[in-house]
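Note to self: keep these together.
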Amino acid sequence: MSLAANFDLHARACAQLGSPLYAALLPEVADDVAAGGPCAAALAGYEDAERDAAIPLRFLAAVHALALSGAAPELAAYYPSTNPHAEPQPNGRVWAAFRRVVADHPEWIRDWLTRPPQTNEVGRTVPLLAGLLAAVDATPLPIRLLELGSSAGLNLRADHFRWAAGDLAWGPEGSPVTIDHAWRGPVPDWLRAAVARHPRVEIIERRGCDPNPLDPCSSRDALALRAYIWPDQPGRLARLDGALRLAREVPVTIERTSARDFLAGIEPLPGTLTIVWHSVMRQYVPEDEWRAVTAELDRLAAADPPFAYIAFEPEHSVDDRDGFLLTARLGTTPTALLARAIPHGIPAFLPSAPLVQQ
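Structure:
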């Protein structure tokens, strides 16, 4: 796939996921790349990048960071994330300002392009928590929560978030992270039952890994997290800000290491339910490393203390229109497809098939 086609593909995804701003800007970027403009210069060397590398999202985040930091005031005037009075519909002036920012800051942008996306999307806890509640309902023990590709570790605090779907809600009232309309259509009966039986869960350990972890209490890293949120989606920004506040209150441990090496250091702990989860990180792990990750997961699953593995990942590609998959495995039982959700996690919905083998 050409770079211009990659940007067009992401434009369609942004339109489907509720970002008219990026849906309008991305085709302009594609045209500028094809014409050899400033965007082509900034993106030189990435013409053959794999689609899963998400180069368009890295590029957009680099420019958004400039607007958020005050380094691009003209563009910031058009972004709802930096100007609540910005016009709701994008226009040609936005693209002109965007293009000037790219022309003025090519080195900044090229530096951002070297980093994998660090979305740490809080909304993805809706499907992840559904998997956790299913696991703890089957094995009601204190939880060791371990995350692969943790970024800043925001989702390791997921039990401090509150989500609601119709008459059903879970999580502490008054949480700084509130997620409404968490499910589309009926909430699964198994989840309703788990919510009723487990209004709270006990997490005794919160650990994760990432090759390049971010510190949510650092202003620099908080900027990076905000930059990956789409500027015209205030709900996502509000949830991120709430999660950043919680990060100062709920400690977690994030190790700077690979998923393979992290899991190799994990041993079963009697009297606990060990849960390993991850969301939209599989695409950044090389195949040889993932085979080693799978072997480590199988090792933990075969041990006597209870173990659950929960994943929220695309089925085939990053633009899967049927929704990403929430799968779960308890011990050595077959992997179950519990639900689907849009890429940002909200809303989740019932899958079309009850069970898949992976």
